[in-house]
Amino acid sequence: MLRLVGLVVSIGLADSLNPTTIAPALYLATGGERSRAQVGEFTFGVFAVYLLGGAIIALGPGQLILSLVPNPSVDARHIIECVAGAAMLVAALWLWRHRKRLCEQRLPAPRGEGRSSAILGATITAIELPTAFPYFAAIAAIVGSGLDPARQLVLLLLFNICFILPLLGIIATLTFGGEHAERLLTIGRDFLQRYWPVVLAGLLFLAGLFVILLGITGLGQTGRGRFGRFLRRCRHLLHP
User: In the chain, at which end, N or C, are there fewer CB atoms within 10 A of the end residue's CB?
Assistant: First the structure.
């Protein structure tokens, strides 16, 4: 369970630097007197839709697949971890390769007068969910763990808390930053515009390596266990 918690947290933190959620939140943060309330509503919309979408995938198609293999072996779970980590490395390499072109694109800003911040966050997240590959990697590892649905939901909740940490950081800046809050957030928005592909690629790369390392060490431990049992059987045959 602790291994899975580490995997979920690492992927969630890497995925949290998502310009499609952070950029609109930064624009809302510099939008006037209700900026903190607007960012809070936006964060709630993002969190609710991301958690609900992950739960539907994990408890719907995920459980259907798991029912076909109700008791996945320990090796199968570690292989899923390796595959999830490899997928993150591929995403990191893609971001790095296209970093210059991505930096030239303007980050998304809130659109539409009269739309509540919560609906805005929910809409953005619903549109982005089908391409949330790090989230899918985490869901695959959670479902493949063979844990009961209640503990799977707890892990999904943990992932989503990690995912919204930058948004919570914006709220904290608005709360405690005083008169310097808007300037700090403007600096953060400019930095994100210039360097987000590089930073996100680095986070995904490190998280992917960590997840692969978890899978490989797990496979190594189970392999040593099987090798030890094999040696004990051989000794028993030689010296009954």
Answer: C
Q: What is the DSSP letter of 179?
A: G
Tell me the torsion sign for CA atoms 118, 124, 125, 126.
Answer: positive
DSSP 1-52: -HHHHHHHHHHHHHHH--HHHHHHHHHHHTSSTTHHHHHHHHHHHHHHHHHH
Report which of 11, 188, 4 is spatially closest to residue 91, judged by C-alpha positions.
11
Q: Which of 107, 105, 129 is nearest to 20 (CA)?
A: 107
Q: Which two tokens stand for residue 92?
A: 């990191």
- Enumerate helices (H) and strands (E) in the chain, giving the number of each: 11, 0
Of the CA atoms within 13 Å of residue 10, those in its CB half-sphere come to 24
How many Å apart are CA 20 and CA 23, to the nearest integer? 6
pTM: 0.76
Nearest to 23 by CA among 185, 168, 202: 185
Report yes or no: 118 and 42 within 8 Å, Cβ to Cβ.
yes
Q: Which amino acid is at 27?
A: Y
Check if the beta carbon of residue 203 is closer than 8 Å to that of residue 17.
yes
Residue 109 belongs to domain spanning: 2-238
CB atoms inside a 10 Å sphere around CB 178 = 10
pLDDT averaged per 10 residues, the chain (length 240): 81 84 84 81 93 86 53 67 82 85 68 68 86 82 80 92 93 83 78 78 84 78 53 55
Number of structural domains found in the chain: 1
CA gap 25, 28 in Å, rounded:
5
